[in-house]
Amino acid sequence: PLAGEAERAIEAGATYLRRSVARDGLGAISRGYPLGSRALVAYALLESGIDHDDPLVVRLFEEMAEQEFRQVYGVSLYSLALHAWSEHAPPVVEGRRGAPEVTAEVLPGGRRVREEIARCAEWLVAVRVPGTGTWGYGVVPRGTRDPWSDFSNTQFAALALHVAVRAGVPVPPAVFEEMVGTFSRSAYAGPDEVEITVDRAPWLGGDDESDGPTAVARTLRGRPISWGYRPIDPRRRRPGAAGWGTTSMTAAAVSSLVVAEFALESRRVRSRRRSAAVDLLLTGGVIELSRAWHPTRERVPGSMHRNLYYTLYSFEKAMDLAGVGVLDGTDWYRGQVPFLLQDQGADGGWGLSLIHI
Q1: pTM higher than 0.85, yes or no?
Q2: Cβ proximity of 304 and 292 under 8 Å
């Protein structure tokens, strides 16, 4: 029953998006984020099951092809939209000397998907804050002292680079090694060890990591680890402007660390010390996230009440990439979907949260 309700809600949400764009365009935000606003709508429509050759989707990709790369969020979302498009679009079959040949997917406007994903990755690598594996909002001017970066921009850049790695686009391993180093330096560990169970923990090894339904329950024991909005300045080793950990940023760290380790393993850049550090951070991060979804554990004050939808998105990416469905007896997905169903407006849209977690 829940699956059917979710499908109907997704269809209503897609209809709302299509109607809104037809009536109002992409809104005022498109002036500041011309690429990102289009990519976000295209990504959502494709993931909701709209055909890749739908006129609105085609129009959005044609318009995106004309946009300049300026913002990390926009370029990252474009990469995610490209991946979604390639998942739905069949490859082109061309005849050559009498024999059919399968070629790469061709986007509206003639560009190829892999080439565009590579272009996104190259730009993101170039604009990262040097030596940190983190990102700010866009290009860092040369000579900038203490350039801005945060784990929200970094999360989206990491997801985009994950698309590139999975597409076979080469990304320098140093980017991911820097990322692991920064998340390691910026972690806040709780004072006491906590023990929880999860349905699987593939980052620790020994699990069935196939695509099948098999799960191997594991007990995780360690200190909860969280992350704040910004990296900790290594020169101070104090919280400073970073603040204490929040659910959304802890989830961002977990997903980014999974991406980094996957990329490094894919390139066979192996280090026992790094892998052990990532295992420790992921275990502590998942333990910390269990507090946000466990009915009896104390929750982090304020971390779920602000930016609810972003937190849910961030959390879903972390659990999806980490492979966790059940947190200490709580099926987080089945626990949250009813709230989202309740929170959907009569017009099919979401935005003004009615729920209090």
Answers
A1: yes
A2: yes
